[in-house]
Write a structure and sequence with these properties.
The structure is a single chain. The chain is mainly alpha-helical. The protein has one domain. It is built from nine helices and no strands. α2 crosses α4, α2 runs antiparallel to α6 and α6 runs antiparallel to α7. The longest helix has 25 residues.
């Protein structure tokens, strides 16, 4: 399981780094800014996870491979951004893939360190959303997890599959793949079809609806 966690962590780091670097390139940051955003987006969730479970120092700052993978992704995006930019919703696609891999890796590592199933699922969700939150905050955007998109819920669903699979003593790799696929599918479906969680009804929104209704009448 430790080998699987490391593999998922590094692949997720690379994909989330692509997401952060692409978002930075779209804001026309210089190469230093793109690389910083690449590292922060790729490793924030993992650092928070490792600190919470006592795996210190966090792997992202004690293992050179995390830094190398993050920098590689940042350099690739910086020099190949015109090609990447032709992809529709490139940031959302990379973000969804990173979310799926990290929520699974986070839940797996929490189980390795002996956390209870519910806490392991929540920590998997936190691992998944941490990088996206850090990326959006640095770019002065409202983090996707705080908007109405299906984001944290998708990560929680993926992590829950891993936890349930462990409780049922199912093979680790198929459970991880199933959890990642569920999270990735939910996130892409939410983007494609506009799925979102309920939002609070504010007086301004109600007034706007009333005004529209009066105009129609």
């Amino acid at each position: 399981m430790k080998t699987l966690v490391l593999t998922l962590d590094l692949v997720g780091t690379f994909v989330f780094a692509l997401s952060g670097a692409t978002a930075g390139a779209r804001r026309r940051l210089d190469i230093f800014g793109v690389l910083v955003l690449s590292f922060v987006a790729a490793n924030s969730g993992g650092i928070v996870r490792d600190v919470l479970i006592g795996a210190t120092p966090p792997a992202a700052i004690s293992d050179w491979r995390y830094l190398a993978v993050s920098m590689l992704a940042g350099v690739l995006i910086f020099f190949w951004y015109p090609v990447i930019n032709r992809m529709r919703n490139a940031v959302s696609l990379f973000d969804a893939a990173g979310l799926a891999l990290f929520c699974v890796a986070g839940a797996q590592k929490a189980l390795v360190f002996g956390l209870e199933p519910v806490m392991a699922a929540l920590l998997g969700m936190l691992t998944g959303i941490g990088g996206g939150v850090a990326r959006d905050v640095l770019l002065s955007n409202v983090p996707a997890v705080f908007r109405s998109d299906i984001y944290a819920v998708a990560a929680l669903a993926g992590a829950s599959v891993v936890v349930i699979g462990d409780a049922l003593q199912l093979p680790t790799t198929p459970a991880a793949c199933a959890g990642a696929a569920l999270c990735f599918g939910l996130r892409l479906a939410a983007i494609r079809y506009g799925w979102h969680l309920p939002t609070a009804r504010t007086p301004d929104a109600q007034d706007g609806n009333d005004g529209a209704g009066n105009q129609e009448r």
